[in-house]
From TrEMBL:
Pfam families: TauD. Belongs to the TfdA dioxygenase family. Keywords: Dioxygenase, Iron, Metal-binding, Oxidoreductase. This is Taurine dioxygenase. GO terms for molecular function: 2-oxoglutarate-dependent dioxygenase activity; metal ion binding. It comes from the Bacteria. Residues 12-275 form the TauD/TfdA-like domain. One of its GO terms (cellular component) is cytoplasm. It comes from Asanoa ishikariensis.
Amino acid sequence: MSGTDLDLATDRLSPEFGSEVFGLDLGNATDDELAAVRRTLVDRKVLFFRDQQLDEDGQVSLGRRIGELTASHPVVGGVDEAHPEIYALDSADDGFADVWHTDVTFMRRPPLGSILRAVTLPPSGGDTSWADTQLAYRSLSAPVRQLADQLTAVHDGNREFGYYLAQRRGGRGSVWDGEVVTRLDPVEHPVVRVHPETGLRGLFVNPGFTSHIVGVSDAESRGILDLLYAHLTKPEHIVRHRWRAGDVVMWDNRSTAHYANRDYGSAHRVMHRITLRGDEPYGP
């Protein structure tokens, strides 16, 4: 059976996006199965896999079979020397993601997608939610969509990672898009991103990294962004995942934003993430 006609066994978590995939061992998947995963990822935007047996080597190998891996992060080094592609989100080292964001939008070429693996989980809590940015765009009123289509926003990684780059990495980050990251210059992206594979439009702003809208007053920028953020994170635009050991989640970074609950107190939570190399966003 070729990768063009293989269907995965899935359960849709919402009508528009998010699916749990059944009966697939990611560590031993065939090329056809991974081709089907890649297609389904674009369609459903976030995929959940239970009871996986991946370790660090297996996670990196999986990522390489799906796309081209980036460094772990433009600023933060890999989990160890043998795995420079793995970004460790460790609560013992301030590895939290409790603000809505889309990964690494403060670079000119943000990742295509991410693959996240549960390593150490708290007894309860630490759920992660994803928002469908394309569904959020479509459900805006027509006048607001027309406004958003015309706008450009600045994304700035300095607020979150500037101190880390300067103090903990000595001003020398990872190699990203062929160059060593030595500073985080703000970049501009369209407020509405056209998905390069489907042509669908989605909101491409996030509270984690978007600093302001270009060409409007500060007050107007805050008002527009607050409106878009409130709309993006409406419950009907969100799926929420309760983690358990062996879970792996993949998401399309071009059509989602996500948020990890920080509700587990002093309990330990460690997640390992890899990201797939993406392209430069473009608007309508």
